[in-house]
Structures are given as structure tokens and as C-alpha cells.
Amino acid sequence: MQISLVVAVTVVAGVLTLLGLASTLARRQIGLVHLAGAGLLEGLLVVQAVVAGVAIAGGDAPADTPTFLGYLVGALLIPVAGVLWARTERTRWAGTVLAVAAAAIGVMVWRLLQLWEASGA
Question: What stretch of H or E contains 30?
Fold first, then answer.
């Protein structure tokens, strides 16, 4: 895994977290900017999954591959679930739902990196 990709995901997740909290404080529903941020976050996570998949297929796998893959799949699903939930939430709390999902991704990508590096891969 590349540290630059982890940092990029973390930055986008952080910005999306702040956007979600800002919309909650402003008592507004999420908008196109939130959805674009979530789309960018998901795109980066897909790139990360492809990079990891290619490395694993090339024999460069982490020591605890099942746990790594569980985190990887979970990270791919959380932004989608967050957006779907936030879109159905008709109150100001939709931004908070998206913020929590983005914050979770910010933590998960660092855990993925930690799992990857634990093997020395």
C-alpha cells in the first residue's frame, strides 16, 4: 500500500467530515458538494482496493490477509451506506451521518496500512 494514497483518502475523508458537520450546524440537508466528496472518497478507495488486489495477486500479501480484506471491503461499503442513509434522512442530521461515515474511513485506511506493514510487505 502506498502512503500517499492513504494520506489522500484521509484528507478527503476529513474534508467530508467537516462538510457534514457544517451542514448539521447550519441545519441544512446534504447537497451536491457532499455527494461529490463522497464520490471522490469512494473513487480513491476503489483505487486503493485495486492497488492492494494487484499486490496480493503478485504474492505481496499481508500476514493477516482475511482481516485486511475485511477492512478493505468494509471501507468500500461504508461511504455508500453513509450516502444512502444520509439521502433518506430528511432532517439536518443527514450531515452527521455522512460525517461519521467519512471519519470511520479516515481511521480504517490507517488501520489497513498498519495491517499491511505488519507483514513487512
Answer: none
Residue type, 34: H
- Among residues 15, 5, 12, the alpha carbon closest in space to that of 41 is found at 12
The number of folded domains in the chain is 1
Residue 120 pLDDT more than 70?
Answer: no
Reading the block at residue 6, the C-alpha cell is 492513504
Higher pLDDT, 78 or 118: 78
pTM passes above 0.70: yes
Residue range(s) defining the domain that contains residue 105: 3-55+63-118
* Amino acid code (one letter) for 8: A
Cα end-to-end distance, the chain, whole Å: 9
Q: Whose CA is closest to 108, among 13, 2, 4?
A: 13
Rounded average pLDDT over 92-116: 95
